Amino acid sequence: MNQNPQNDRLSNAPDQEGRSAQAMASTESVYKPIELADVVSGQFDDEEASAEVVVDLGKRVLAPQTDSPKLHKVLAQAGMGSRLEMEKLIVEGRISVNNEPAHVGQRVQYGDQIKVNGKAIHIRIDPPPARVIAYHKPAGEIVSHDDPQNRPSVFRKLPRLQNGKWQSVGRLDLNTEGLLLFTSSGELANQLMHPRFGLEREYAVRVLGALSKDEKQRLLDGVMLEDGAAQFGSIEDGGGEGSNCWYRVTISEGRNREVRRMMEAVGHAVSRLIRIRYGAMVLPHGLRRGAWLELDEADIRSLMRAAGTTERPRSTEAKPVSRTNRNDRRPRTGGQGRAGTALPRAKPPVKPNRVQGADLGATSSDAVKSGPSYIGAESFNRLKKTPGAPGRGGRGSRGGGSRSR
Question: What is the pTM of this model?
């Protein structure tokens, strides 16, 4: 009798190891993109009401950044004197920051105006690295800071930036939902939106009535809108019920209400529109409406490469450098402190226009899906493994519930 418990434990060990391995495997593969089939089947909406698949998004705070450099250290590195001498000048009230007397231990940041004995000192302090968040926009929110009608705005739910403000990467109209990117870098936002880089936007769109073969071809060849011609890169049937027909469409620009206007141009009204991908950044399962996810540096770098930028996000450690410091012998670099590491400018992908039934395996959309990883996967999986960690966004009070299909 006394040996039975031990035997049971030994016999159950392989099962426990197997369950542990399965749990680890499921943890590694938690990042799953929303597909058109998930929207059509209702799984996309059902997740909003299900408590079992909800990601614990924790506190609505950004990951902390490295502290800004101290004033006396910045001045010493600029060749103004030793750190002790700079501290003495601060104590004597001979140094000001932004026209206010400085104090010992004060930190300075990009954009601060420093004066010594009333004379401005021109010192370059690197701006903070670009930050990017992915937001699941619900229908009923506008992408604007100012609205005369005082409608709910996406910016009310975003975390507060210590410096600068969030720039939206494109817009989604009031009744459109899905993936919306924000960044603290206006330059990165412009590059991600620029048509020259051909970043695809993928949408799940529900229209009234099925598209005919001729209508699909018109949309692929291009239809004329008030602001010029527009065309889809691909169209894929998704099924539906009754007169509600779903399609997966891709497009490489983001004009105002472009997808809706294109469908209306061929005689079909859009009853629901969801953006499920922007470039290689997808809308993942578990990121509920009204919630946001901060991207890691590796994911931001992937975004910047896709945008063809020649700059990388700067290190989180600020390194102030004076243009007049003759002792600075560091080589001029292209990024991350290594000479000649500037990224090559990306070329726009070639996007064949194909209708469902053709060989869609060659499209860039499917190339993204067949790849080993998506942009955002590392950020998402890290937060799943670390409940309550920074970089998570909780749902707001206007986070939308389930919707009728």
Answer: 0.68
Q: Whose structure tokens read 């902390």?
A: 64
Beta pairing class for 95-97 and 132-137 = unpaired
pLDDT score for 398: 39
Judge if 358 and 258 occupy the same domain: yes
Q: What pLDDT is attached to residue 382?
A: 67
**Range(s) of the domain holding residue 117:** 71-121
Q: Which of 55, 58, 61, 62 lies closest to 32, judged by CA?
A: 55
| DSSP designation for 335 | B
Is residue 223 domain-resident? yes
Q: Which residues is 202 bridged to in the sheet?
A: 250, 277
CATH of the domain at 136: 3.30.2350.10
**Does residue 141 share a domain with residue 97?**
no
* The pLDDT of residue 327 is above 50: no
Q: Look at residue 375 and give its three-state secondary structure.
A: strand
Q: Look at residues 184, 196, 282, 202 and name the one whose alpha carbon lies nearest to residue 248.
A: 202
How far apart are the two ends of the chain, measured CA to CA in Å?
Answer: 59
pLDDT digits (tens, 9 = 90+) for 225-279: 999 999 999 999 998 888 899 999 999 988 899 999 999 999 999 999 999 999 8
Distance, CA of 273 to CA of 178 (rounded, Å): 8
Residues annotated as catalytic are 173
User: Which helix (H) or strand (E) covers residue 385, if one does?
Assistant: helix 377-385
Do 101 and 245 have their domain in common?
Answer: no
Task: Output b/e per residue, 279-297; b: 16+ Cβ within 10 A.
Answer: bbbbbbbbbbbbbbbbbbb
CA contacts within 13 A on the Cβ side of 371: 16
Q: What is the pLDDT of residues 16-54, one digit of tens each?
A: 444 444 434 443 446 788 898 999 998 888 887 765 544
